[in-house]
Structures are given as C-alpha cells and as structure tokens.
Design goal:
Blueprint: E1 2-6, H1 10-21, E2 25-29, H2 33-40, H3 51-60, E3 64-67, H4 70-75, E4 79-82, H5 97-109, E5 114-118, H6 126-137, E6 144-148, H7 158-163, E7 168-172, H8 178-185, E8 192-196, H9 197-228, H10 232-240, H11 261-275, H12 280-304, E9 311-315, H13 330-340, E10 344-348, H14 353-356, E11 364-365, E12 378-381, H15 393-399, E13 404-407, H16 414-419, E14 423-425
Parallel strand pairs: 1-2, 1-4, 2-3, 4-5, 5-6, 7-8, 9-10, 9-12, 10-11, 12-13, 13-14
Bound molecules: uridine-5'-diphosphate-xylopyranose.
C-alpha cells in the first residue's frame, strides 16, 4: 500500500522503515529540512539497533523516501500516519499543538478520501478533535476517517517490537477504514484488536501506566527486602512464575525514566483529573519512583559520608540499555545529584556519551568502561547495559582507591562480589 508517515522521530522513523521492509511504499515527512537531507543520505539521527540497515536497504529498493513537503506526502498516499511529538507541559498535561498543526496541514492538502491514523500517544478524545479539525479545515470537502493506532515499541528494541508486535490496536468510528488497516498490518501476523477510538487511546496510557506501576511495585518490595534480609530478585523470580503476574518489568533499580513512562503517567493523571477522577494509585507510582532514587543517593552518602572532593565513577547514562537516549534518564538525574553534593564524576556509556555531554558538562567522559574508575573513591552502575556484566572487575577494583560498588541495577551477584573483596551495595538485596 502507499503510506505516508508524518514525523520521523523514534516512532515515525521505525514505523516507516518497518512498513517499507514488509513491502509497502512509504513516504516519511518531516518539517526539519536538515533532518530530511540527512535521512536521504542514510544518516540516522538516533541509535536504534537494526534501524540504519533497514532504512538504507529500503531507500535503495525505492520503497522508502523522505520529504519535507506535507502536501506531497498526503496526496501520494491512501493512508497518512501522524507520528509527531506530544511533549509534556509544566502542569503534566500534554502539548497537542503539533498534532493540531499536522491535522490542519493534512486537511489543507487533501483532495480525495484519506485514512488518517494517529500513532502518537495522545489523551483520550484526541481522535475526535483531529476528525473535527480535518473536517473544518478541509477545503476540498472530501471524506476522511480518523483511526487511533497507538504504538507500543520500546526504545532499544524498536525494530524487533514493531516487526513482531504482541497486538495491533485499531480504534475506529466506523468499519470503513478497518480493511485497509488489516491489509497494512497483515504481514506482521499479530492479533488485531478493533475497537472504538476512545478505547484505543486509553489502551496506550493504561498499558504504559500499568508497566510503570509494576516497576514501582517491585521497587517498593525492594525496600521491604532490604529491611528484612530478603532478596528482591528471588522474590521477583518467584512472583513472575505465576503466569498471571509474569517476570517482565519486575527488575528493581533506581527507578524508571525515558521519554514515555514519566510523561505518560503525568498525562494520565491529568486526563483522569479532567474527567473527574483522582488517580491516587498512579500518584503513588510516581512517588515510589522518586523515593527509589532518593534512597540510592542516601545509600551512597551513608557509605562515602561527605561527597565534596570525592571522585565517583558512573557506568551508564542512557535511561536504559541499548539506546543513546538520555531524556528523563535516571542515570543523568543521579549524576546531577552526586555533582550537587560536590562529587567529581568520571562517566562512561556505550552509546549515550555524546548526548549526555551537554547535560553533564563538568563530568569527565571515559571511552573505555574498564578505565572509568581510575583514581575514584567508588563506582556506581546506573544503567542496565549487558556490557557492564563483562566488566574486568579485577582491573576496575585495582583502579579504585577503595573497592566500593553501588549497583543501581543489580547486575552482579552480591555473595560473589563480597567474596572478591568488594564493598557491594545493590537494590533490595
Ligand atoms: C515504554 C514501553 O515499554 C513501550 O511499550 C512504550 O511504547 C514506550 O514506553 P521505553 O520507554 O522505550 O518503552 O522503555 P522500557 O523498556 O519500557 O523502560 C522504561 C524504563 O523503565 C527504563 O528507565 C528502564 O530502566 C525501567 N525499567 C524497566 C525498570 O526499572 N525495571 C524493569 O523491570 C523494566
């Protein structure tokens, strides 16, 4: 099918590349001309495993192209996807001005029936507003169906998630656009949930908030584990074997971050408030997440006492592994807290160092993870990169002035670390 995707951020670009990969002809539109030039030249602005190859291959095959011209994108396709940012506002609500702008642009360019699909994460009822806006601004007065089709990909695993989705959610007002959506997604062989637009919009916020809740739940359990001498990983393993619970998203740590969970939680709380419901459960999820970071900083201070003039090595800056994204990264927040206490930092991340530099201008970036701890008083692990499990622990231990490791992601075995002479502090164990 002929598809257009407006917005080439994480969701738009990965969606475009994956749609092209399964044989659709895709035009990606972005109003940033420099970005479009880069993408045409095969330069991918984000690190996402497998994406660069996918983009290059499909551009070469003529199935994927980039333009900054929205009318061209709209007129050449049957289905137009909206994948623009919905950034948070200071009060927690979502800024929908990019969505509104794109709705007007699409309306202005439409000369025949189109299916307009919203992929961005939006508050419930946004689909209705998009439909109203397109109707109002469409000069040609042609028909249009608005569909809500939220995206569930995770950064760092985006291509895999998109190629093998657990489910595809399609929210519609009538049956008219359903066949086209089924055709677009047929190659992905996933169950397709067809529902109304409001339910589809809610599925996205409800899912992300539930996953954040699961993380806060295990983080709260980690507090009980520390107080009682239990091991949170054993507890999570035992809980996770119950199929109704599942083991995933039960890794205790220094809290969740990233561009989705914190923003989506605030937005969902705000949406609930606007509808007249005080979502206290989710407010508690936020509070536990903030506490988890406070407790970790406290643990570091309790052990090292005064941080002023201390040198601390930090492994991990991205908000999670397999990405260079540092937006709302707990690792960056932790570094800033340590700096505020007066510590000097040596930091390393396999992919996120460049993006982290402007946020941590005073930290020393170290290219080799095994050299990060040289001359430091302690080492901190802040992101769950698999690479860190292969750390040359002997070398790192010798390079530290004291063998102290604060493992905010429980990457190592506590008993083994202590046997090897480490003062080892982790989460919930
Ligand atoms: C999330 C959702 O998973 C995805 O479905 C949605 O489309 C976008 O938001 P993402 O933000 O890319 O994806 O990352 P995710 O893998 O969900 O991790 C989010 C945060 O939770 C990270 O900071 C991660 O470190 C943390 N986390 C995750 C934990 O602390 N413990 C866990 O068990 C899992």
């Amino acid at each position: 099918m002929k598809l257009t995707i407006i917005g080439t951020g994480y969701v738009g670009l990965v969606t475009g590349a994956c749609f092209a990969e399964v044989g659709h002809r895709v035009i990606c539109v972005d109003n940033d001309a420099a970005k479009v030039r880069q993408l045409r030249a095969g330069v991918i602005p984000i690190y996402e495993p497998g994406l660069e190859e996918l983009v290059k291959r499909n551009v070469a095959l003529g199935r994927l192209s980039f333009t900054e011209n929205t009318p061209e994108g709209v007129q050449q396709s049957d289905v137009v996807f909206i994948a623009v940012p919905t950034p948070p506002q200071p009060d927690g609500s979502v800024d929908l001005s990019f969505i509104e702008r794109v709705a007007r642009d699409i309306a202005g360019a439409m000369t025949e029936y189109k299916i307009v699909v919203d992929k961005s994460t939006v508050p419930v009822k946004t689909g209705e507003k998009v439909a109203e806006t397109i109707k109002r601004y469409c000069k040609a007065k042609v028909d249009c169906d608005v569909v809500s089709n939220p995206e569930f990909l995770r950064e760092g695993f985006a291509v895999g998630d998109l190629m093998n989705p657990d489910r595809v959610v399609v929210g519609v007002r009538s049956q008219r656009p359903v066949a086209a959506l089924k055709q677009i997604y047929a190659p992905f062989r996933a169950p397709i949930v067809v529902t109304d637009i409001a339910s589809a919009e809610l599925i996205k916020h409800a899912s992300n908030s539930f996953l954040a809740l699961k993380i806060s739940y295990i983080n709260a359990i980690s507090v009980l584990c520390e107080a009682s001498g239990a091991n949170v990983q054993e507890v999570a393993a035992g809980m996770g074997m119950d199929e109704r619970i599942g083991r995933r998203f039960l890794d205790a740590g220094i809290g969740f971050g990233g561009s989705c969970f914190p923003k989506d939680l605030s937005a969902f709380i705000k949406i609930a408030e606007q509808i007249g419901y005080d979502f206290r459960l989710l407010k508690e999820v936020q509070r536990i997440n903030a506490d988890q970071m406070d407790r970790f900083v406290k643990k570091i201070i309790e052990t090292l006492w005064v941080l002023r003039d201390k040198k601390i090595a930090v492994l991990g800056l991205a908000f999670k592994q397999n990405t260079d994204d540092v937006r709302m990264s707990p690792a960056i927040a932790l570094c800033q807290r340590l700096q505020k206490e007066g510590a000097a930092l040596r930091v390393h991340d396999p992919k996120a160092m460049e993006k982290a530099r402007p946020l941590l201008p005073d930290a020393t970036c170290v290219e080799d993870m095994n050299a990060v701890a040289e001359g430091c008083d302690a080492l901190v692990i802040a992101t769950e990169w698999d690479e860190f499990k292969n750390l040359d622990l002997e070398r790192v231990r010798k390079s530290l002035s004291h063998p102290i490791l604060f493992d905010g992601r429980n990457l190592f075995d506590r008993a083994q670390m202590e046997e090897r002479g480490w003062i080892y502090k982790s989460i919930g164990r």
